[in-house]
Write a structure and sequence with these properties.
This protein is α/β, with parallel strands linked by helices. It contains 5 helices and 13 strands. It is elongated, with a radius of gyration of 17 Å.
């Protein structure tokens, strides 16, 4: 058995070949982000207890091998994924520094600050995968954040008070 725990970000070729020890079962108990589409699945079985993020379009390659899942298997736009865990804030400056649009994968509690507007979100964010609480400092951002959230496993809310100095 090839066991993935913790957080890993790997290319699709990882899924194409079984473990070097000849394992025919892949067990995912942490977070595994696959960054490019696999062309085949090299294991006989896939067991997901954590979160497996796969490029959209890879479902037909991977799903026939799922034998057990009590976690999440989420497809996403794989061109430029960014995984954020814990908590943090995203202000205008963060989005200004992005050279190309991203898929935001958020696991935890995050705030979109009041200096961010809908136009910059449309320009810099392809989609949002939200597993936790996403807060908007400006209630006008809730509709665009909701529209961008292709997977939403908690709430998007207006933040009345913004505490802490953590930044995304």
């Amino acid at each position: 058995m090839n066991h993935i725990s913790g957080t890993m970000k790997l290319g699709g070729e990882f899924l194409e070949n079984p473990g070097v020890d000849g394992s025919d079962i892949l067990l995912v108990t942490g977070e595994l982000l696959i960054t490019s589409p696999p062309t085949k699945f090299g294991y006989k079985q896939l067991i997901v207890v954590g979160q497996l993020f796969i490029p959209r379009g890879s479902e037909s390659v991977i799903t026939p091998f799922i034998t057990q899942s009590i976690g999440e298997i989420i497809s996403y736009d794989h061109r430029n994924p960014r995984l954020f865990m814990g908590n943090g804030r995203f202000g205008r400056e963060f989005f200004d520094y992005l050279k190309e649009p991203i898929t935001m994968i958020l696991i935890g509690e995050f705030v979109i600050e009041s200096d961010v507007n809908a136009e910059i979100l449309r320009e810099k964010v392809v989609e949002i995968i939200q597993m936790g609480v996403l807060k908007a400092a400006d209630k006008k951002l809730v509709p665009i954040l909701t529209a961008l959230a292709v997977e939403q496993m908690n709430m998007i809310q207006v933040s009345d008070k913004l505490e802490g100095e953590t930044h995304g």
